[in-house]
């Protein structure tokens, strides 16, 4: 930068003084007010459900949760429970279901589609995380696809995911993000300021010092506002100091052992929460295990996929499958509560400005069908979604739900993949 003195001072004295602040990541605390970002999370849990023990009963607002979703009772006001949505066309059973749950038989998944349209405002367009999602997943069954239906492999390592987002790979350079955010923009260009100052006359030097001090005061207010709102404070991440177990590259990779499943999952959800707080990305996905899940939790003497073949809905095996679903609902609740506890730049919670889509690849796991899918939405998408409801969509196409989610994110489309049941979003879904 080598402007003449008059241009330099004119720039500082006018609107250009504020422009560097607007482009710095920590300055989003100030600039986002009045236009708070919306965010989307796509969460997958494996192997479908027992519809009669999953979907609520009752009316839209006066409903009762069923056994499989009972852990969500404490956060039901933040959720919309959807029944009667079917996935049409495309492949069958596990493989076909996971391939179309976010694509609707389109050529890319909704998370990728949204990331391409919303990601230019953030350092990362999206993040795709997993919890043992690549373990014994020989078929490569994932639910995220880039253009041309190219599978996107999720990152199962939360420490790596955090370092990528906030370390050297997170915004350039080796300096930790927290330190970069605290350091003044003036300090970054101090050499340029000093060089310019040495060439100025007394009057112009006084003007430069005045504008420099004004800029520092603006910076101070922004940084103080960020500290008060709790924005981008990543110091609490991994407070238990979990480390990737030795043998990450062996078989089985120790990070994929069942004993680490919950810890890994919660760290991944913490990464998402921190990334949203810092506006590092606005689209995220989290894949718990994968279709035909090998997960075996302590206290359950059958594996996840085995229990999904439950036989009679009131069988002993079915009861074990209910336990697995309740387990994953507790993890879903953790994410909801985590986002609800964090304040966004507009004074609302992160949850209020987010929509979460919980999905699976099957409807009735025993039948391997794609009817009456176990779908739940959470968050308010900045006010676009009214929660605390149960809605039966009577056999409508799940691709309309994908359209509605895009519309909630202010991406205006009227179709996404399958249109055999018409175009547009789901009637009565948006607030």
UniProtKB/TrEMBL annotation:
Q: Do you know which PROSITE patterns this protein is assigned to? A: TAT
> Which keywords appear in this protein's UniProt record, sorted alphabetically?
Signal
The answer to whether the entry has keyword Kinase is no
- Pfam families this protein is in? HXXSHH
Reading the lineage from the top rank, the first entry is Bacteria
Q: Does the keyword Signal apply?
A: yes
Which spans are transmembrane here? none
Stated name of the protein = Tat (Twin-arginine translocation) pathway signal sequence
């Amino acid at each position: 930068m080598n402007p003449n003195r008059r241009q330099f001072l004119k720039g500082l004295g006018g609107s250009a003084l504020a422009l560097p602040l607007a482009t710095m990541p920590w300055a989003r605390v100030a600039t986002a007010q009045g236009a708070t970002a919306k965010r989307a999370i796509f969460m997958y849990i494996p192997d479908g459900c027992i519809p009669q023990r999953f979907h609520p009963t009752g009316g839209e607002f006066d409903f009762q949760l069923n056994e499989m979703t009972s852990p969500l009772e404490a956060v039901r006001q933040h959720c919309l429970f959807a029944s009667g949505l079917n996935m049409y066309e495309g492949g069958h059973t596990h493989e076909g279901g996971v391939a179309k749950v976010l694509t609707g038989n389109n050529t890319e998944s909704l998370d990728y589609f949204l990331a391409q349209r919303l990601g230019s405002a953030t350092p990362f367009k999206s993040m795709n995380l997993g919890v043992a999602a690549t373990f014994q997943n020989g078929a490569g069954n994932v639910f995220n696809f880039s253009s041309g239906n190219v599978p996107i492999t999720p990152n199962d390592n939360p420490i790596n995911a955090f370092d990528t987002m906030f370390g050297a790979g997170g915004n350039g350079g080796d300096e930790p993000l927290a330190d970069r955010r605290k350091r003044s923009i003036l300090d970054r260009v101090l050499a340029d300021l000093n060089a310019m100052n040495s060439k100025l006359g007394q009057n112009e030097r006084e003007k430069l010092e005045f504008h420099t001090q004004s800029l520092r005061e603006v910076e101070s207010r922004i940084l103080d506002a960020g500290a008060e709102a709790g924005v981008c404070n990543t110091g609490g991440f991994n407070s238990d100091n979990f480390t990737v177990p030795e043998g990450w590259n062996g078989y089985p990779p120790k990070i994929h052992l069942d004993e680490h499943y919950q810890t890994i999952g919660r760290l991944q959800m913490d990464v998402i929460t921190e990334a949203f707080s810092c506006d590092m990305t606005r689209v995220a996905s989290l894949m718990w295990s994968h279709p035909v899940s090998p997960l075996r939790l302590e206290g359950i003497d059958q594996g996840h996929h085995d229990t999904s073949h439950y036989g009679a809905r009131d069988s002993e095996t079915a009861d074990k499958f209910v336990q697995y679903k309740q387990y994953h609902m507790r993890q879903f609740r953790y994410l909801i509560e985590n986002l609800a506890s964090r304040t966004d730049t507009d004074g609302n919670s992160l949850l209020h400005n987010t929509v979460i889509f919980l999905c699976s690849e099957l409807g009735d796991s025993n039948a391997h069908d794609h009817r009456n899918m176990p779908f739940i939405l959470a968050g308010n998408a900045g006010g676009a979604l009214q929660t605390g409801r149960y809605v039966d969509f009577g056999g409508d196409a799940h691709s309309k739900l994908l359209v509605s989610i895009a519309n909630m994110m202010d991406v205006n489309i009227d179709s996404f993949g399958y249109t055999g049941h018409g175009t547009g979003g789901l009637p009565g879904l948006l607030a």
